[in-house]
Amino acid sequence: MSFNPLALLQERQCAPVYSALDSGNPSAALRQCDGLLAKQPDLHLAAALRSLALVRLGRRADASKQVDGLLAATSKNKALLDGGSSLLHVLSIALGSLGRTSDEVEMLDAASKAAPSNIDLGARAFVAMAKTGQWQRAQQTSLRLSKAAAGSKGSDNDLHFWWSMQAYALVAADPSLPAHQLALPLATRMIQKHLETAPWGARSDEELFLYATILARQGDASKRQAVELLDAQKELREKSMTLAILRTELLRELGQWTTLCEEALQAMESGDDNWSHVQVLVEAVSKLHDDSSSSGSNSSKVTDAEARLSKLAEGKGAKNRGFRLARLELVRGLSDEQRAKLSQPDLSKLIVAYFDDFAQKACAYEDLAPHALLLVEGPGLEKVRETVAKEEAREIETLDDLYRVLNACKLLRLVQADSKDAEMDRTLSKRYWDIYKRALVIGKDLPKTEMQPADDFALLAAQACVAASPSSPSDLVQAVSMLESALQHSPKGYRLRVLLIRLLRQLGSVDEAREHFSKLGARSVQLETLGWLLVDRSSSYRNLLPQGSSQEAEFDSAVEGIARIWRESEREMPEMVAKAFENGIFSRIEEIVDFKKRLDNSLARQLYAAERALCPAKGDEDEEMRREAVQRALRVRAPSDQRDFAVLLNLLPSSRGSIRELTSLTRQEPGTRYVDGMLDVAAAVLGIEREHKDARDGGSDDELTASERRLHDLARKILDKASDVEATAKAFFEGCLDEAKTTNSPFPADQLLVASVALQGYQLVARRQIDTKAASAPLHELRELLKEKRDHVDFSSSSQEAAAVAEREGEEDTKARLEAAARGAYNAVLGRLEAC
Fold it and tell me: Family assignment (predicted)?
């Protein structure tokens, strides 16, 4: 970079502006810029800094206009974009802040081509291309950069070369790029030639990973070559878990089960209890079993593997939880036919032995549950029940005692004989709750930031209440009371809170459910995985809050807060890609790129877009943002579902379904089918033409209620400009009324959400200027029905046992509060119906 006295002078002139921006005072910076530009209109650095100040003041339109003028000036005078100029740096920041990443790439690319010897500028251009996923241009730029840097003192042309190879790999992964078929063969030849003169460098493990990955994607012959390459670099592989995992994956794809089985056993026999060895061993033995069944060739290998694992689990690994669990996993990983051929003790004996030795571990239930589910009624299962039941009666004096009793209760509940006796469930609930209260003493000295080890006893008690009588809200009220009490002792007990959110929504207490979601404190990617707790059917649940109330505003704010994860990903994921390239961490680059793609195509994001589009917009700008979000969602053909449903821990008998099913409005959670339906409705509301008329693969009609299916049918008629739209609208409103009349559910939400969907249908037909006369009579009758339901809200229990528990636990206060919330929900929906 040559000395530029003019650039230095501009820096000095703009020093006060820099100071104002650095001190967080963009208003002062703007005034300084205006003063400088009044005296010197062609002071481009001041203009660039002015655009940055405008961005920080939120005046994005003005900032963008300022930037347009600067880009026009630089296109006429390339010298302004000298690689070392502050103008280039400031303008790059401003463009990035405005989200104009394509303009940033074009500017940096032009500047780097104008100064091909400027390595730093070329690297900045490459990074900008990598951030925007322009892999073909990035590959060409990095290869040019590598050649320019060759021989330059202090340059890192080796890193730039590998940048180019990684870009080739990403080009190959994108079928839309014209060069994708040639990318991998070209990269392979270039790497082979490069290694002739440049041996493995400081980032050898990452470079080796990249080379092996490129080979592995070119067929089995190249995969074998990749394995040979990794085997030749044994010392490097042993230091890198990433390389070891890659080699294992390649051997798996090549079907080298004998090798994998032997290596896993050797690692375990040497004392390595890494769970990945167990997973490989289980899969390898299962595959070898299949081969021996068909040809008999691997029979001795399978027998040897089973014998060695048994010896390990019974000998020096007897007290090692991992080795003992490996034996159980081996049994579970086999088919019924394969298990019948095993020479090992039967599964029930293995479960009993494991429980005896490790029941004091917090995770013992999670370890044994998948294996216990394989047991069928008979002597083996009875032996498990008998052994485990002895621990359930243990006195709780230590933490080990607590976990032995807890694991016994959970395991017994899982393998409980099929029974739907409500009183038995209530009795169990009382027993679990009594144990919970006794167990609290173990965690009495824990800080509030720690979860109580007894939390799962409260979950067992609450879930037994839910299972007791799905047709009675009184059991849900009791469960709510228990969970709220447990949360006072364990404010960070997220599993308690997740179940509480589900129950409160069922009972129509939407505002309380929102409060508890906020207390979960979900951050970053947790908003993607846990947001479904609040977002699912949020447009319908919102109608259960008084129109124009603070509760409605807080609910909207909480739902809109979920979108932070996608805004953050658009900003942070490109930065993570850039950092990985800059540090040469090639083993992570495609993971980050794939994760960003998953967030971009997130099913949760599409669900959010549909739900928000069905709520009233706050103005033209808000409606335009919703329109863009729906259009974006409609373009996604292969959604990615990252929602975490396992956070709703299921502690019900295997014969009774899951707690998620018992606390859901439909038999399945909203998925692809529901999202498709609601996107159709959103498109009809906003007047958007769907590019793809057919629903995407996946999903089931069970994801939608009957009224939601009718709403979807109405939306499709509107989108298709069908001639019978008015008749369909009439059938929709009459259908909603019939559903409300015939629903047998005693839970307020189940009744009110039918009315909420009717409201959405009314807003849709009114928005599309369809005659609403057909809605008048059904909606009037629906209002009268809801008034009657409101006046008869009663969460009292008909069970004497439950009533006694309620009295002891102060449930009456909870019942009165929830009944009031339910009546408030009825009033909110009635108020909205009155406005139709």
Answer: Belongs to the MDM20/NAA25 family.
Give 644: exposed, middle or buried? Use CB within 10 Å, 0-12, 13-18, 19+. middle
pLDDT value, residue 697: 55
Residue 504's alpha-carbon distances to 227, 235, 376, 469, 497, in angstroms, are: 55, 57, 36, 16, 10
What is the amino acid identity at position 21? L
> Phi first, then psi: what are they for 640, rounded to 5°?
-115, 125
Sign of CA dihedral 792, 793, 798, 804: negative
Own/partner contacts of 159-163, CB < 8 Å, gap of 24 or more, are 159/203, 159/584, 160/123, 160/126, 161/194, 161/198, 162/203, 162/206, 162/207, 162/210, 162/584, 162/586, 163/126, 163/138, 163/581
Minimal CA–CA distance to 443: which of 489, 499, 382? 489
For the CA atoms of 236, 242, 246, 252, the dihedral, rounded to the nearest 10 degrees, stands at: 110
Instruction: Give me the amino acid identity at 426.
Output: R
Stated length of the chain: 836
The C-alpha atoms of residue 209 and residue 386 are separated, in whole angstroms, by: 52
260-307 pLDDT, tens digit each:
999 999 999 998 888 999 999 989 988 888 776 655 556 777 788 888
Residue 140, number of CB atoms within 10 A of its CB: 17
Cα 284-290-293 angle, rounded to 5 deg: 135
Q: What's the distance, Cα to Cα, between the start and end of the chain in Å?
A: 70
Which tokens belong to 570?
Answer: 């658009």
User: How many angstroms separate the CA atoms of 626 and 170, rounded?
Assistant: 32
Structure tokens at 56: 């920080």
**Rounded CA separation 252/240 (Å):** 19
Least Cα distance to 325 among 409, 401, 249, 268 occurs for 268
Distance CA 457, CA 525 (A): 29
Q: Can you spell out the DSSP letters for 483-517? A: HHHHHHH-TT-HHHHHHHHHHHHHTT-HHHHHHHH
Residue 647 has which token pair? 């956070």
Please give the structure tokens belonging to residue 185.
Answer: 């063969």
- At residue 453, what is the residue type? P
- Residue 654 burial (10 A CB sphere; 0-12, 13-18, 19+): middle
**189: number of Cβ within 10 Å:** 10
In angstroms, rounded to a whole number, what is the distance separating the alpha carbons of residues 447 and 426?
A: 32
**Backbone φ and ψ of 477, nearest 5°:** -60, -45
The span from the CA of 710 to the CA of 703, in Å, is 13
| Distance of alpha carbon 372 from the chain centroid | 29
Output the six-digit token pair for 448.
Answer: 């509030």
640 bridge partner residues: 602
Task: Please report the DSSP string for 615-647 in residue order.
Answer: SPPSSHHHHHHHHHHHHHHHH-SS-B-----TT
d(CA 516, CA 43): 54
Please give the backbone phi and psi of residue 44, each rounded to the nearest 5 degrees, phi first. -65, -30
Over residues 551-605, the pLDDT tens digits come to 999 999 999 999 999 999 988 999 999 999 999 999 999 999 999 999 999 999 9
Number of H helices, E strands in the chain: 45, 0
Summarised one tens digit per residue, pLDDT across range 72-94 is: 988 887 777 765 578 899 999 99
Measured distance CA(441)–CA(339) in Å, rounded:
44
Torsion (CA) 113, 119, 124, 126 in degrees, nearest 10: 70
Residue tagged 């947790």 (tokens): 526
Q: 255, 287 in Cβ contact below 8 A?
A: yes
Q: What is the chain's alpha carbon radius of gyration, rounded to the nearest angstrom? A: 32
pLDDT band at 200 (very low <50, low <70, confident <90, very high): confident
| Residue 697 CB coordination number (10 Å) | 8
Place of tokens 């969970």: 483
5-13 vs 86-97: helix crossing angle, rounded to 10: 50
For residue 686, the surrounding DSSP H or E stretch is helix 672-686
